[in-house]
């Protein structure tokens, strides 16, 4: 999917990996249309967002892996008001907080693509939806969600 078919209009700030490289593997995987999250190599627990060490066992041996199982809507909102000037004539849209129950219940935020007026149910299953912005400099890929 190109910029011309993006969920939100062009002109929004582009995401960039953290300067220290902490989340670079996430963005690299997204560019390959793969979802990854952080998992501790010592205690094997999942965590999100990325940190330099494990929240639970304090190991520095954390890595990025593809999380297992379904992803479900944990919460969501439907903004109608423009939170950025390029959204002045665009709206509503849906922002979802998505939970991955089989990955220790980590939660990830993203837009829910599709009809922005659709009824949304907590617990509904969703899958990642990758939106490429290859013409941007630097290019990036957003991870949205859509109903499974
Ligand atoms: Zn750990």
Radius of gyration: 16 Å
> Beta fraction of the residues?
25-35%
The bound ligands are: zinc ion
Largest sheet: 5 strands, antiparallel
Helix content: under 10%
Counting DSSP H or I runs of 4 or more residues, the number of helices is 1
Major sheet: arrangement of strands: 6-5-4-7-8
Number of domains: 1
First and last CA, distance:
18 Å
- The oligomerization state is single chain
Sequence stretches where pLDDT stays below 50 over 5 or more residues: none
**Quantity of strands, as a count:** 8
- Class derived from helix and strand content: mainly beta
Order of helices and strands: HEEEEEEEE
Overall pLDDT level: 93
Shape: globular
Structural key phrases:
1 helix, five-stranded antiparallel beta sheet, binds zinc ion, 148 residues, mainly beta, 31% strand, three-stranded antiparallel beta sheet
Please, could you describe this protein's structure?
The chain is mostly beta strands and 148 residues long. The protein has one domain (24-147). Helix content is 5%, strand content 31%. The chain has one helix and eight strands. The chain has one helix at residues 24-31; strands spanning 37-40, 46-47, 62-65, 71-77, 95-100, 106-111, 125-133, 140-147. A five-stranded antiparallel β-sheet has the order 6-5-4-7-8. Strands 2-1-3 form a three-stranded antiparallel β-sheet, with no helix packed on it. A hairpin with a 5-residue loop joins strand 1 (37-40) and strand 2 (46-47). The longest helix has 8 residues, at 24-31. The chain is globular. The model has no long low-confidence stretch (mean pLDDT 93). Bound molecules: zinc ion (ZN). Zinc ion (ZN) is lined by residues 40, 42-43, 45, 54, 56-57, 59. The site of zinc ion has 8 residues, from loops.
């Amino acid at each position: 999917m190109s910029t011309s078919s993006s969920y939100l209009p062009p002109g929004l700030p582009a995401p960039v990996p953290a300067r220290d490289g902490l989340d670079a593997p996430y963005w690299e995987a997204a560019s390959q249309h793969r979802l990854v999250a952080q998992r501790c190599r010592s205690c094997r627990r999942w965590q999100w967002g990325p940190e330099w060490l494990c929240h639970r066992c304090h190991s520095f041996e954390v890595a990025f892996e593809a999380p297992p199982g379904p992803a479900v809507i944990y919460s969501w909102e439907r903004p109608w008001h423009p939170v950025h000037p390029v959204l002045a004539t665009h709206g509503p849209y849906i922002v979802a907080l998505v939970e991955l129950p089989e990955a220790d219940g980590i939660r990830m935020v993203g837009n829910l693509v599709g009809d922005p007026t659709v009824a949304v149910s907590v617990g509904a299953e969703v899958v990642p939806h990758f939106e490429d912005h290859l013409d941007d400099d630097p290019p990036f890929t957003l991870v949205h969600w859509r109903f499974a």
